[in-house]
Amino acid sequence: MKTVKKLLAVTLALAMCCGMLTACGGNDAKNNGKTEKNETLVVSVENGLEGKFSPFFAASGDDTDITDMTQMYLMIVDRVSNPVLKGIEGETRAYNGTDYTYYGPADIEITENEDGTVSYDVTMREDLAFSDGTPVDIDDVIFTLYVYLDPSYDGSATIYSAPIQGLEAYRSGMETLFNLILAAGRDNTDFTYWDEAQQTAFWAALDEAGAAFAQEIVDYCVDAGAAEEGDVAGAAAAWAYDGLPADATTADFWQAMCEAYDWDIMTMTSTESAGSTLADLMEGYDDYAIGIQTGESAPNISGIQRTGDYSMRIVTDELDATMIYNLGVAIAPMHYYGDESQYNYDNNQFGFPKGDLSIVREKTGKPMGAGAYVFKEFSNKVVYLEANPDYCYGEPKTKYLNFRETNESDMLNGIETGVLDIADPSYSMEVAEQIAEINGVDDINDFEGKVITTKLVDFRGYGYVGISAKNVKVGDDGASEASKNLRKALATVIAAYRDEGIDSYYGDTASVINYPISNTSWAAPQVTDDGYTVAYSVDVNGNPIYTSDMTAEEKYEAAKQAALGYFEAAGYTVADGKVTAAPAGAKLEYTVNIGANGAGDHPTFLILKNAADAFAEIGITLTVNDLANSSDLYSSYQNGVAELWCAAWQASSDPDMYQLYHSKGSTNYYNINDTELDSLITDARQSTEQSYRKGLYKAAMEIIMDWGVELPVYQRSEAYVVSTERVDGSSLPTDMTPYWTWKAEIEKIKVK
């Protein structure tokens, strides 16, 4: 269900393609020679291919995977999503005790200027070519940027929100016909920019598309068992849109979603989609996507400056730590996606008419670029790609690459029978047991089986227990030391049971984490770092609770005693090893909400049940509220009602904390308000020095933990399953991460 996705994948920020395939950079050594290749590698895709294989308009993850195979990206990232700025000669960086060298098509130099502006100087390799043999140069990059920054661009990339100098002036004075008619309303009588027939056709097409959009969501919820057939109101509730009348129609559901987003339909449809976009569903959409000049605008973007045939400078008005990730754009061939006759940099022509991306959209179904593979065909739910013999890092060792739509339930069987070579089923103990059975072994941790090889990769997100500073406090001040001690008392006991709970649910495929950040981030504290501590492992006086020789039972007892110290410091009355009275504003009973389907099916459920038993022994009641409807869980903490709750965050490429923890953050559900924390978060945004930012984030995380508003719980794994019989395992990348998967070194993979 969508609400489950919201709980498990709240995205902190969106960087363009840096967490995806980093084509032309997945090499540990340069290799420009031709190599012997074999037959075909077949890879599963689960969610259905939409056929939008465009670097500009691909929307689904599966379509993006196809696109990535055909493209080269201006900037790449390493295994922890750290930007590689010296791509031409390469940068060597250590990961997991091994040095890896990363190459890309360009060098990027960042300069912070005295006037507060920032310059990004890009210098490209001069020997690159697209798969049709056409040379790659800086004009292709400039063309690409102008497509993304066009006032009529409506793809998923958000580089237009970057503080590029002159960008606002370039985008002003023009709006799409779609937005103009929408803003004017159904009863508009001003036909300066369109006629009445166009307006009537627009609203009819939008209404029809809106109903179809809502119907897709209803169908999705019915298929997921979250609503009965024909129950629009029930499906809407499962999608976090409660309150529709029992006889609601899909038109009513569509109206409710539009109103929730204040009729920002593009944002709404990209966020709420169960599959299709509005462009997919609305008849004549492309006719309404054209930009209309309504006022004055700049003829170019002053911050995009061509400095040579293979170089350019991008200037931003201010320092923005996330800006560098916006340079991870695909270098799209202007001669293919645009019109070279319409490109003249000095005369403010950039390969297409401003406000009209129709020639770019025409190529959406058939990508072309300078990547490792060349698109050939999409038919019968299979995408066929062929090796690019002129790929800059060597012709791929496997000539043919197919992506085949596959139901998740068929993935393991597909590997076993030879239909598939690589798949990515949702990993669980059940899947691990199935793999072990196929391999004919008893040990589910035997990842190198005779039939299936399993490669585990940390998931980009992490699970946590949240505690509201507004609802769990002493007196009326959630920021007081007493309130912090109350929350730390609760977190200390729950934290003690994390190892047992996560091990029983995930086995060796997940690990307990101790800081509120995904372990996949470059900013995540490491065990070997100075000052690294286990979450909530000290008492109220700052002394360690545990010793290395303690048994599990001894640790649980130590945690209870430490919690009593925190409760007492919070103003509770403690006598004979129990809490007997609460101070004003605090309670002896708290409730934690968890979405475990009403059946305890959640990795944190056992942790909470064990903690509840421990709390009962010291006079505190912790009620574990297992919600069968995930939307109820979502609403409880989004609306500020929950005291404690369990959910998960998904990390982006940049670890910016503003959205979650700044006092003005849009998803600061903890109600944390700390001026020092705000300053650290803001300061980290205003630097590009990663070691400096990491230090600021470490200090910020320590404040968050001191507030006692979040207990990090687990980092789970996702898996790639590979045919041991068909794929040469030694050709797969080592030390794969969410940012560096098998796709990052696709040109090296060999089939047997």
Largest sheet: 9 strands, mixed
Rounded average pLDDT: 91
Instruction: Give the terminus-to-terminus CA distance.
Output: 40 Å
Number of helices: 23
The counted number of beta strands is: 27
Strand proportion, as a percent range, falls in 15-25%
Q: By helix and strand content, what is the structural category?
A: alpha+beta
Ranges where pLDDT stays below 50 over 5 or more residues in a row are 1-36
The backbone outline, from C-alpha atoms, is globular
Instruction: Give helix % range.
Output: 25-40%
Rg to the nearest angstrom?
27 Å
What does this protein look like?
The protein is 30% helix and 18% strand. With 752 residues, it is of the alpha+beta class. Strands 1, 18, 19, 20, 21, 24, 25, 26 and 27 form a 9-stranded mixed sheet that branches. The protein is globular and about 85 Å long. The two termini are 40 Å apart. Mean pLDDT is 91; it is low at 1-36.
Strand and helix map with partners:
Layout: H1 2-8, E1 10-11, E2 38-45, H2 61-70, E3 76-77, E4 83-84, E5 91-95, E6 98-102, E7 106-112, E8 118-124, H3 138-148, H4 167-171, E9 174-176, H5 177-184, H6 196-223, H7 232-238, H8 250-260, H9 265-272, H10 278-281, H11 285-288, E10 291-293, E11 304-308, E12 311-316, H12 334-337, E13 343-344, E14 349-350, H13 358-361, E15 373-379, E16 382-387, E17 398-405, H14 411-417, E18 422-423, H15 429-439, E19 452-458, E20 461-467, H16 481-496, H17 498-506, E21 510-512, H18 552-569, E22 573-575, E23 578-581, E24 589-594, H19 605-617, E25 621-626, H20 630-638, E26 644-650, H21 658-661, H22 675-685, H23 690-707, E27 710-723
Parallel strand pairs: 1-26, 2-17, 24-25, 24-26
Antiparallel strand pairs: 3-4, 5-6, 7-8, 8-12, 9-10, 11-12, 13-14, 15-16, 16-17, 18-27, 19-27, 20-26, 20-27, 21-27, 22-23
